[in-house]
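The passage that follows is intended for readers who have already worked through the single-chain material. We present the inputs for a multi-component assembly, then the predicted structure in tokenized form, and finally a short commentary. You are encouraged to pause after the input and sketch how you expect the pieces to fit together before reading on.
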Amino acid sequence: MAYVAIADRDQHLHDPDTFITKYIWSQDHKVIAIQYGGVAILVGVVALVLSLLFRMQLGFPDTFSLVDPNEYYQYVTMHGMIMVIYLLTALFLGGFGNYLIPLMCGARDMVFPYMNMLSFWVYLLSVIVLLASFFVPGGPTGAGWTLYPPQAISEGTPGIGGGILLMLLSLAIFIVAFTMGGLNYVTTVLQARTRGMTLMRMPLSVWGIFVATILGLLAFPALLVAAIMMLLDHLIGTSFFMPEMLSMGASLDFQGGSPILFQHLFWFFGHPEVYIVALPAFGIVSDVLSVHARKNIFGYRMMVWAIVAIGALSFVVWAHHMYVSGMNPYFGFFFATTTLIIAVPTALKVYNWILTLWQGDIHLRVPMLFAIGFIFTFIHGGLTGLFLGNVTVDLPLSDTYFVIGHFHMVMGVSPVLVVFAAIYHWFPKITGRMFNEALGKMHFWFTLLGTYAIYLPMHYLGILGVPRRYFAYGDTDFIPESAQTLNAGITVAALFVGASQLLFFINVIWSLWKGPKADPNPWDATTLEWQTPDTPPKHGNWGHALPEVHRWPYDYSVPGEEQDFIPQTEPPHAGVVAGRDHGVHH
Amino acid sequence: MNVSLLFAALAAAILVWFFLLQHLKTKPWIEQGVIEQHGAVDVPASRVGLWVFLAVVTSLFGLFTIVYSMRAEFPDWRPLPDPGLLWFNTVLLILGSVALQRARGAAGKNDLAGLKRNLTTGGVLTIAFLAGQLIAWQQLTGDGYYMATNPADAFFYIFTGLHGLHMLGGLFFWGRATEAVWRGLESSSVTEVANVRLRVELCSVYWHYLLLIWLILFSLLLST
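Having made your guess, compare it with the prediction:
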């Protein structure tokens, strides 16, 4: 088998002997994963602090003057862009994708280790370029994270000097980095699986990351096209997106461009982007639930089909972000229909998670708590998505806090809970040490209840008609006094949630330093990454020989077996009829 | 809009098609023991990597052509004259592609002289193509067609520029393949020969694909 040979070919591995080749210019997927994850979390903290700053303004408009209106828009923009792309996309694919794919598939490393290393360094460059925009005259762009033209590059929007240029440049660099990483993830899954690891024996984490990567590879070019064309509009004065405009009574040089064209391109990327983040989260949460409920995942095949179906459908729903831009009613009908159809495979996944828990031997350990928390927040975010998917309901709600509530529930809190579930779940394997359980549980409850306190009231504010994007509301006829009280409450909750993340960082630092040594397989899990000869796994992952896979990844609580889990590497037990006829291929 | 829907459907279809190739009906929870994967793609990783990359390239250029045809429907669209030089450049690129194909054939037959000759010819023709594109740019700017003159001009520069950048990237790997050929001549070990063959093959595939893209772009530029 050629791919087995590749997976086990030793000359593919460089030989790190110095500190620098081992930990800095490393080609080891595990080190690259930690580098990706570290940078992503770091830049995520920046975005978190930005959100706290503008929440102070929103909650207490007359008390604090931390931000002026321009900075408000700049911080909102940077918060959104960083969280969606530089944190979540990078962390799920660059971080967990890098760490988990080779280990879960039984490979020694990614198939193109050098390109993998390059991917991280180019990603770091994109982050540096992005953050540099805080230090140029005029500051970062304040165009909103969707960067709609014409306002993104028109006089009056903050950051139209260096800010927007650096943003577009940084996105282009990020896309290059992602493409190099993505080529690795897809090819590794296809070509470097160990003997016996069929596609339908891969853990759902790998399935989620794999399909998400394909989505990213096909969707990110749309953002690149949009970024290149907007750069040219801004720098050279082409008229791709810029219509004829009057500014201060004078006609600008632009003529005949179409801002709607940009929106199509942006959302052709933007909607798959939602699933680029969601699919890995779906996969990881499935694995965490199954392990800690000591039960096989309910409906594994259906879960795989649902991931693929969601991935495919995600390319034909993008215009539901553009209902308010105006469109042919038939298009609106089409996109509302496809949007609601996505609810079917998604709901199927939710049912299967719940049925996995049903009558399980549930261990409420920290990763499990976060995974179950995810089910709650995802159901809430998903249901409000049904509201917004309908054109007639979306129109009045689109510019209100309802959208903020929905979006943060489904794409902010939910994936972040999975990120924490994953970090706590794999922490013992990655670091070789256990974290503090009590601190972890505290972190979970503060985060879950705190985020509910932030986002549930936003739905109410939205239905009340409180518009989003406003720096301050002043006196209006339609917003009651009490709405401002609610706003203040939201801000207090946000500060609380922000502060409780310190528990996480304290826990990680303390555990790295003083945590008890971890068992190689503390959760009694079946998948390959828990069966490595060393913990944390050494360079090359598997010692002398690659593991051989004899069963699917969810053999938990198999009737008649002594242990309540059977590792994937365990050969068939006596009396069990061995699987499919090996020679026959259908 | 319709075109973009079509494109989206295509992308989705590729995903589903790939999945259908796999064993939809397997019951992984029942089967035990090592399953040999006869259906699995039995090819070098770099070949798969190249095809995945070509999918990304397709997405990029496909989206650009969609945007092009959408933008071309607006009333301010002023097509620019098609420089005759482009025909000449196109012929150069076709010949380059042919030369690399012949290099691939020569590598398969262990014809080292033919491999060296054709590989070099292919590279030189491609460099000539790129130089020709630059001259075409000069001619157009000389006639007053700048990027900001009209979206039609801007698209012309974007298409040729982006395609040229991809060719440059190809030339980088062509350079490495050429280097491997010369090194392989000295060592002539079995793995080196296989390595050389694979490199030359991947170059030729990439060249054919970029030629195809260029032909599509060129006909698109001619049609408006």
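Commentary: The CA atoms of residues 351 and 392 of chain A lie 28 Å apart. The mean pLDDT of chain A is 92. How closely did your sketch match?
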